[in-house]
What does this fold into?
Amino acid sequence: MAHIHLRRTRHTSDLRRYWKVMSLSERFEQIIAAVPGVIVAVVILLALWELLRLVIDTLVLQHQNVLDHSVFQKLFGAILTLLIAMEFQHSIIKVIERREHIIQTKIVLLIALLALARKFIILDATNTSPMMLLALSVGVVALGTVYWLIEQRDAIRIDQETTPTVTASPERRGQEKTHHPRNGE
It folds into this structure.
């Protein structure tokens, strides 16, 4: 628990220290990032309250079976709503703590995938058209593909940064043919 206190103290002192040297646009960015952060924090608290109320009402007071499909849909829909809000809050905190300058694309994709997963969980398949199911499925595949492509790009970048560059030996340098565009080669 002590490390959490140290992290908060360090962040506060860093923000105070850097505030003096920040440009006007950087200060503006910090203030703007804090506003949605507060709003999302309120949404998280409200979603947590609704989840607690739903759990107490459904499982404790009404003694409903958690494995009943409609109960399962309500409970996990509320849990995923809370998780989506918390992930969004985490991405805003990264901006505020200046670990990231902008909201990262991968985080947005993951939040969108979580939202679609939530939609599939709360979806009533008997009242949903096949076209809607197809559209949601295509959305999941598209988002998953874009996320995978970004991961592949990042893996290549990391590999390139960690792999040392190999230079030719002195004997081999003389053997290499150079390309001269002016000579028509």
